[in-house]
């Protein structure tokens, strides 16, 4: 089971958008609102890297960038290259504001 904190948890002096914590580790979410994936990743990357690397006691399961844009092939290639070269558990998640059910609201790209 995960305990979720939204805009209440700090890492260093930084307030993070959301974190899900369990006994096994944590999933950090950084929310961006641009209509394209690349700007969302670009804006979130520095923050999410800092969150993932600043506190060595925090066992990070995933670092998730959450945005409204659906990724295209180029975006997914970029995400794959980032994960390969930086070697962090980075994911992008798109959300659909108009979806009425939870299973249709979020789509994760690993």
Keywords:
110 residues, six-stranded mixed sheet, single chain, two-stranded antiparallel sheet, 33% strand, alpha/beta, 3 helices
Question: Helicity level, as a percent range?
Answer: 25-40%
Strand order in the sheet with the most strands: 1-4-5-6-7-8
The geometry reads as globular
Return residue spans where pLDDT drops below 50 for at least 5 consecutive residues.
Answer: none
Q: If you compute it from the alpha carbons, what radius of gyration comes out, rounded to the nearest whole angstrom?
A: 14 Å
So how many helices?
3
Counting DSSP E segments of at least 2 residues, the number of strands comes to 8
Largest sheet: number of strands, sense, barrel closure: 6 strands, mixed
Class computed from helices, strands and strand pairing: alpha/beta
Distance between the termini: 21 Å
Order of helices and strands: EEEEEHEHEHE
Mean pLDDT: 91
Percentage of residues in strands: 25-35%
Q: What does this entry look like structurally?
A:
This protein is of the alpha/beta class and 110 residues long. It is built from three helices and eight strands; from the N terminus they run βββββαβαβαβ. The strands form two sheets. The protein has a six-stranded mixed β-sheet with strand order 1-4-5-6-7-8. A two-stranded antiparallel ribbon has the order 2-3. The longest helix is centred in the middle third of the chain and has 18 residues. The protein is globular and about 35 Å long.
